[in-house]
Design goal:
PX Domain; 5-stranded antiparallel β-sheet
Length: 343
């Protein structure tokens, strides 16, 4: 009987632990050849130690004899001083590393050493509960659920209005990884609200200069403030909202568009759909029935008319003049500048 092997590893995020001392673990969803799926937790030093031993086992593929023969992916050594930014940067590095591992030739990707590292350990099935910390509380943002949410995949968790959840990871596509008592899974950010108030300080201000993105899937607007776009269109993102519905600009038109259908125009990042395993955008807050907030005032949202007005004002100020349709010196957006450079 053929021994099972790892066929896919997906990085879900990271989590803070306090026992036996403060450290971080990365959450990895491991898919096996027998179609089994298991969530495991590994520290970065653990992963790097495994990486070094794998190189020792396969010196030719590690490039130790001749660099041109290297097929095993590289992995930076752990830093002595860790930071929030380094952990975020590491997520992309680890995700690419894990994907490269399982795509290696079978004598490496299916070797015993690799399989043993990704096997479930007892501590993976019974991770330390947040309330068992001995050196202090785990610092995770607590949010309240504003409406009942029914899960549609095994990667999500069902929640009821009034439940309190702790946020492990806020994904840009609007699906957040949460924990509620003993349950963990993905939840649309639109079903959650902060306890302190409606003003979410983490949400960035609009950037009317715009960032160039390309649509990787067509979307037809369902609400008045959304925008319909075809596959492969280049747009400017002017406001990255935490609910995953970004405001984009296409010439003089603006509208909300699902961020999971966008990717950087320079091709340096993957689609925002890669994490989590959501195949559809999160619902808009306006479409959630019977949503009840504990706050008297909701967070003010800009209208599309305000976005368009502010965009025109920004471009005018940047050009130090009012734009003239017949003038070649009027201020241009990044999208216009990119088109001019490609001519």
């Amino acid at each position: 009987m053929e021994e099972i092997y790892v066929r896919h590893v997906e990085l879900l995020g990271f989590e803070k632990r306090f026992f036996p001392s403060q450290h971080y673990v990365y959450m990895l969803m491991v898919k096996w050849s027998d179609l089994g799926e298991k969530l495991i937790y590994r520290t970065y030093p653990e992963i790097h130690t495994f990486h070094k031993s794998l190189k020792e086992m396969f010196p030719i593929e590690a490039g130790e004899i001749d660099r041109k023969d290297r097929t095993i992916p590289s992995l930076p050594a752990p830093r002595w001083v860790d930071s929030q930014k380094s952990r975020e940067d590491r997520k992309t590095t680890l995700a690419e590393y894990c994907q490269s591992l399982v795509n290696l030739p079978a004598h490496i990707s299916r070797c015993k050493h690799l399989s043993n590292f990704f096997k479930v350990r007892p501590e993976d099935e019974n991770p330390p509960a947040p309330n068992t910390s001995i050196s202090g509380p785990i610092i995770l943002d607590t949010y309240r659920v504003v409406a009942d949410f029914e899960k549609t995949t095994k990667y999500e968790i069902a929640l009821h209005i009034g439940d309190f959840v702790e946020i492990v990871e806020k994904n840009e596509n609007g699906w957040w990884f949460c924990q509620c008592e003993s349950k963990r899974g993905w939840v649309p950010a639109t079903y959650l609200e902060p306890l302190d108030g409606p003003e979410e300080t983490e949400e960035p201000e609009p950037n009317y200069e715009g960032e160039l993105y390309v649509t990787n899937q067509a979307y037809k607007a369902e609400e008045e403030d959304e925008i319909s776009l075809s596959f492969g269109e280049t747009v400017e993102v002017i406001h990255k909202l935490l609910d995953g519905w970004w405001v984009v600009r296409k010439r003089d038109e603006t509208g909300h568009f699902p961020s999971m259908y966008l990717q950087k125009a320079d091709g340096q990042n993957e689609s925002l759909r890669t994490n989590p395993r959501a195949q559809k955008p999160p619902p808009r807050r306006s479409t959630i029935r019977n949503a009840k907030s504990i706050h008297n005032k909701s967070r003010k949202r800009l209208s599309q008319e305000a976005y368009r007005k502010n965009s025109r004002r920004y471009l005018q100020e940047r050009g130090n003049r009012f734009p003239d349709k017949n003038s070649k010196t009027s201020a241009k957006s990044p999208l216009q500048e990119m088109k001019n450079q490609s001519i």
